[in-house]
From TrEMBL:
Protein name in the entry: Cd(2+)-exporting ATPase
Provenance organism: Mitsuokella jalaludinii
Location of this fragment in the whole protein: 289 to 574 of 739
Protein family per UniProt: Belongs to the cation transport ATPase (P-type) (TC 3.A.3) family. Type IB subfamily.
Localization per Swiss-Prot or TrEMBL: Cell membrane
Length: 286
């Protein structure tokens, strides 16, 4: 039978905004010594603002227009943000054959033209000659019929509690804090430095994130590994970790499903809170 103090611990955690899906995860949480974070939507807000538009062949407004139409059906934070930046109603664009490529971007046919919207990897995969560009932000490249058409610079902000969250984990005795991201190295390194993360790995595809977590799991010496994500592209990593922690408010349904622990208000500081509750509960149980 499950000791009563587990229920008290799970109840206490839920009052703090942390949903723990079972007593076994309480035990795992108590022995976590590595916390691996996804970047977008987890340590950053996942709400991007357009900070610059650099077209090569068309007007700036037209570049944003094309990108936001290609992103019409995507739930990725970048897509949501680009749509919000192009608020023009009622233009009758014909968008067909939409295909989202995880870790790359989205391609679609708009009014008969093949448009790709994504990162450098995506441009390289179709042979469009993108140019090295401004590094202050996440770069979204656009191609029209295989020809490079320019890029949009967008930028996200770090969550208010992110630095305090990393600090609290280090104070709780966490051995390593790691960030994994599909975003560019320049953006990733800046966020990692600002938050004093121990390690950062960038430009990863979703399958690279799984491989990285597996490598980190092999390096564990008796401790447990937690992965924290919003589930956009990272549901497989959430299930691979010893304990998968999902953002509940902005996160995807797939994440909430795949996770063992859900942070109801997306506050990364709650990871340290959950860990303290778990350790206290385990001291009572043992
Ligand atoms: P993160 O690891 O930061 O959560 P993702 O793995 O979701 O990021 O995406 C990695 C990169 O792939 C993004 O930084 C972006 O360059 C590109 N990308 C992914 N989805 C889209 C999209 N819908 N539109 C444009 N670019 C995208
Ligand atoms: Mg993500």
């Amino acid at each position: 039978s499950i000791p009563l103090s587990f229920f008290a611990g799970i109840g206490g955690a839920s009052r703090a905004g942390v949903l723990i899906k079972g007593s076994n995860y309480m035990e795992t949480l108590a022995s976590v010594d590595t916390v691996v974070f996804d970047k977008t939507g987890t340590l950053t807000k996942g709400v991007f603002e357009v900070t610059a538009i650099h077209p090569e062949t068309i007007e700036p407004e037209e570049l944003l227009h094309l990108a936001s139409h290609v992103e019409r059906y995507s739930t990725h934070p970048i897509a949501v943000s680009l749509r919000a930046a192009y608020a023009h109603e009622a233009d009758d664009c014909r968008v067909e054959a939409v295909e989202e490529v995880a870790g790359h971007g989205v391609r679609a046919t708009v009014n008969g033209h093949s448009i790709c919207v994504g990162n450098a990897k995506m441009m390289e995969s179709i042979g469009a000659a993108w140019h090295p560009c401004e590094r202050k932000g996440t770069i979204i490249h656009v191609s029209i019929d295989g020809v490079y058409a320019g890029h949009i610079v967008i930028s996200d902000v770090i969550k208010a509690n992110a630095a305090a969250a990393i600090d609290a984990l280090h104070k709780n005795g966490i051995r390593r804090t790691v960030m994994l991201t599909g975003d560019a190295k320049s953006v990733a390194d800046q966020v990692a430095a600002e938050l004093s993360l121990d390690e950062v790995y960038s430009e990863l595809l979703p399958q690279d994130k799984v491989a990285k977590v597996e490598a980190l799991l092999r390096q564990e010496q008796g401790g447990k590994l937690a992965f924290v994500g919003d589930g956009i592209n990272d549901a497989p990593v959430l299930s691979r970790a010893d304990v998968g922690i999902a953002m509940g408010a902005m996160g995807s349904d797939a994440a909430i499903e795949a996770a063992d622990v859900v942070l109801m208000d997306d506050d990364p500081l709650k990871i340290a809170v959950a860990q303290r509750i778990a350790r206290k509960t385990m001291r009572i149980v043992r």
